[in-house]
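hiii so um. not sure if this is the right channel but i have a protein structure encoded as C-alpha coordinates and i wanna go backwards to a sequence. like what aa goes where. can anyone help
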Protein backbone atom coordinates (compact mmCIF):
# COMPACT_ATOMS: atom_id res chain seq x y z
CA UNK A 1 0.00 0.00 0.00
CA UNK A 2 2.87 2.37 -0.49
CA UNK A 3 1.83 5.67 -1.96
CA UNK A 4 -1.47 5.54 -0.10
CA UNK A 5 -3.27 8.83 0.26
CA UNK A 6 -3.13 10.39 3.75
CA UNK A 7 -6.93 10.51 4.15
CA UNK A 8 -7.31 6.88 3.07
CA UNK A 9 -4.55 5.86 5.49
CA UNK A 10 -6.32 7.81 8.27
CA UNK A 11 -9.56 5.95 7.61
CA UNK A 12 -7.81 2.58 7.64
CA UNK A 13 -6.04 3.47 10.90
CA UNK A 14 -9.34 4.68 12.41
CA UNK A 15 -10.96 1.31 11.64
CA UNK A 16 -8.00 -0.46 13.25
CA UNK A 17 -8.19 1.83 16.30
CA UNK A 18 -11.96 1.35 16.70
CA UNK A 19 -11.47 -2.41 16.47
CA UNK A 20 -8.74 -2.24 19.11
CA UNK A 21 -10.79 0.02 21.39
CA UNK A 22 -13.68 -2.46 21.30
CA UNK A 23 -11.46 -5.50 21.88
CA UNK A 24 -9.63 -4.11 24.91
CA UNK A 25 -12.37 -1.70 26.04
CA UNK A 26 -9.97 1.22 25.87
CA UNK A 27 -11.00 4.86 25.71
CA UNK A 28 -10.78 6.78 22.47
CA UNK A 29 -7.98 8.96 23.84
CA UNK A 30 -5.93 5.95 24.94
CA UNK A 31 -6.14 4.33 21.52
CA UNK A 32 -5.56 7.62 19.67
CA UNK A 33 -2.47 8.29 21.78
CA UNK A 34 -1.10 4.81 21.14
CA UNK A 35 -1.66 5.09 17.40
CA UNK A 36 -0.12 8.56 17.24
CA UNK A 37 2.97 7.37 19.12
CA UNK A 38 3.45 3.97 17.52
CA UNK A 39 1.57 3.59 14.24
CA UNK A 40 1.09 6.94 12.50
CA UNK A 41 3.69 9.24 11.05
CA UNK A 42 7.16 8.60 9.76
CA UNK A 43 9.45 6.63 12.00
CA UNK A 44 12.79 5.37 10.72
CA UNK A 45 13.10 1.57 10.69
CA UNK A 46 9.54 1.11 11.91
CA UNK A 47 8.02 -0.25 8.70
CA UNK A 48 4.84 0.57 6.82
CA UNK A 49 1.37 -0.87 6.26
CA UNK A 50 2.68 -4.42 6.12
CA UNK A 51 3.96 -3.91 9.68
CA UNK A 52 0.66 -2.47 10.99
CA UNK A 53 1.71 1.15 10.54
CA UNK A 54 0.10 3.97 8.57
CA UNK A 55 3.07 6.32 8.11
CA UNK A 56 1.29 8.67 5.70
CA UNK A 57 -2.00 8.96 7.61
CA UNK A 58 -3.65 12.33 8.22
CA UNK A 59 -3.44 12.30 12.02
CA UNK A 60 -6.11 14.98 12.54
CA UNK A 61 -8.65 13.15 10.41
CA UNK A 62 -7.79 9.87 12.14
CA UNK A 63 -8.33 11.36 15.62
CA UNK A 64 -11.56 13.12 14.56
CA UNK A 65 -13.06 9.88 13.19
CA UNK A 66 -12.16 7.87 16.29
CA UNK A 67 -13.41 10.54 18.71
CA UNK A 68 -16.67 11.02 16.79
CA UNK A 69 -17.31 7.27 16.51
CA UNK A 70 -16.65 6.62 20.20
CA UNK A 71 -18.51 9.68 21.51
CA UNK A 72 -21.54 8.92 19.35
CA UNK A 73 -21.31 5.13 19.48
CA UNK A 74 -24.74 4.53 21.03
CA UNK A 75 -26.52 6.65 18.39
CA UNK A 76 -24.29 5.36 15.58
CA UNK A 77 -24.88 1.73 16.55
CA UNK A 78 -28.64 2.37 16.71
CA UNK A 79 -28.59 3.86 13.19
CA UNK A 80 -26.56 0.90 11.90
CA UNK A 81 -28.94 -1.61 13.49
CA UNK A 82 -31.89 0.16 11.84
CA UNK A 83 -30.29 -0.24 8.40
CA UNK A 84 -29.10 -3.84 8.70
CA UNK A 85 -30.93 -6.64 6.97
CA UNK A 86 -32.37 -9.27 9.34
CA UNK A 87 -29.73 -11.80 8.24
CA UNK A 88 -26.98 -9.45 9.49
CA UNK A 89 -27.68 -8.98 13.24
CA UNK A 90 -25.39 -6.30 14.67
CA UNK A 91 -24.10 -8.38 17.58
CA UNK A 92 -22.99 -11.12 15.20
CA UNK A 93 -21.12 -8.84 12.80
CA UNK A 94 -17.39 -9.33 12.61
CA UNK A 95 -15.76 -6.75 14.95
CA UNK A 96 -13.72 -5.31 12.07
CA UNK A 97 -16.90 -4.87 10.04
CA UNK A 98 -18.51 -3.09 13.00
CA UNK A 99 -15.46 -0.80 13.10
CA UNK A 100 -15.77 -0.06 9.36
CA UNK A 101 -19.46 0.79 9.76
CA UNK A 102 -18.88 2.91 12.87
CA UNK A 103 -16.06 4.89 11.26
CA UNK A 104 -18.06 5.44 8.07
CA UNK A 105 -21.16 6.45 10.02
CA UNK A 106 -19.10 8.84 12.15
CA UNK A 107 -17.81 10.60 9.05
CA UNK A 108 -21.22 10.65 7.39
CA UNK A 109 -22.74 12.20 10.52
CA UNK A 110 -20.39 15.20 10.32
CA UNK A 111 -22.13 17.98 8.39
CA UNK A 112 -18.92 19.32 6.87
CA UNK A 113 -16.51 17.11 5.08
CA UNK A 114 -16.12 15.14 1.91
CA UNK A 115 -19.17 14.18 -0.13
CA UNK A 116 -21.03 11.11 1.09
CA UNK A 117 -20.16 9.11 -2.02
CA UNK A 118 -16.44 9.73 -1.42
CA UNK A 119 -16.75 8.53 2.17
CA UNK A 120 -18.67 5.42 1.11
CA UNK A 121 -16.09 4.57 -1.58
CA UNK A 122 -13.22 5.02 0.86
CA UNK A 123 -14.75 2.65 3.41
CA UNK A 124 -15.66 0.19 0.68
CA UNK A 125 -11.95 0.10 -0.22
CA UNK A 126 -11.05 -0.38 3.45
CA UNK A 127 -13.60 -3.21 3.75
CA UNK A 128 -12.13 -4.91 0.67
CA UNK A 129 -8.76 -4.80 2.40
CA UNK A 130 -10.13 -6.91 5.26
CA UNK A 131 -12.80 -9.09 3.63
CA UNK A 132 -13.16 -11.19 0.49
CA UNK A 133 -16.78 -12.28 1.05
CA UNK A 134 -20.09 -10.43 1.19
CA UNK A 135 -18.98 -8.00 3.91
CA UNK A 136 -17.82 -5.17 1.58
CA UNK A 137 -21.10 -5.31 -0.35
CA UNK A 138 -23.06 -5.24 2.90
CA UNK A 139 -20.96 -2.34 4.23
CA UNK A 140 -21.58 -0.46 0.99
CA UNK A 141 -25.34 -0.94 1.32
CA UNK A 142 -25.45 0.08 4.99
CA UNK A 143 -23.29 3.18 4.45
CA UNK A 144 -25.36 4.15 1.40
CA UNK A 145 -28.59 3.92 3.42
CA UNK A 146 -27.02 5.91 6.27
CA UNK A 147 -25.77 8.57 3.84
CA UNK A 148 -29.22 8.94 2.31
CA UNK A 149 -30.62 9.40 5.82
CA UNK A 150 -27.91 11.71 7.16
CA UNK A 151 -27.18 13.67 3.98
CA UNK A 152 -30.40 13.45 2.02
CA UNK A 153 -29.62 16.72 0.20
CA UNK A 154 -26.65 15.06 -1.52
CA UNK A 155 -28.95 12.44 -3.01
CA UNK A 156 -31.84 14.63 -4.11
CA UNK A 157 -32.63 14.72 -7.85
CA UNK A 158 -31.24 18.27 -8.07
CA UNK A 159 -27.79 17.28 -6.78
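sure thing!! here u go:
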Amino acid sequence: MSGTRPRTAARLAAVQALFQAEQVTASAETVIDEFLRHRLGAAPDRGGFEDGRAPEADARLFARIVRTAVAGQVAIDRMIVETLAPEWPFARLDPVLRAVLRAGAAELSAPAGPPARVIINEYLDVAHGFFAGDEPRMANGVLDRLARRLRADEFSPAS
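oh and The helical segments are 6-24, 28-38, 59-71, 73-83, 95-109, 116-130, 135-150.
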